[in-house]
Design a protein that fits this description.
Length: about 110
């Protein structure tokens, strides 16, 4: 473990204070100054993360659209038509040849 560095020429009558410093990537404390400024956010990394966040949001939108798309069903007229379906879903009756479209509240013959 490294110790924080203290100033070498403190004001008279005062104990030596700590020099401004930050922990470097090598695990050592580095004196902060003109030649070694305090690290700030990495702009390139920040922009890449923002782009990734936007792409993730776009993918979430696409997934939600895919999950909420109308479905097509096939069955017989004697069967109950599906409930809790997305508007514009369709149902085709094999025995009658009739096609139905769900209008959001009921199945309508088309």
């Amino acid at each position: 473990m490294t110790q924080l560095k203290r100033e070498s020429n403190p004001s008279p009558g005062f104990p030596a204070g700590f020099l401004p410093q930050h922990l470097g990537s090598n695990g050592q404390f580095l004196v902060t100054g003109t030649g070694n400024p305090l690290p700030t956010r990495d702009t390139q990394l920040f922009n890449e993360l923002r782009t990734l966040k936007e792409e993730v949001q776009s993918l979430r939108t696409i997934i939600n659209q895919l999950n909420n798309k109308p479905s097509s069903y096939v069955g017989y007229s004697s069967e109950s038509k599906p409930s809790n379906v997305i508007k514009a879903s369709s149902f085709y009756e094999l025995d009658t040849g009739e096609a139905y479209l769900y209008d959001g509240s009921k199945w309508v013959v088309i």
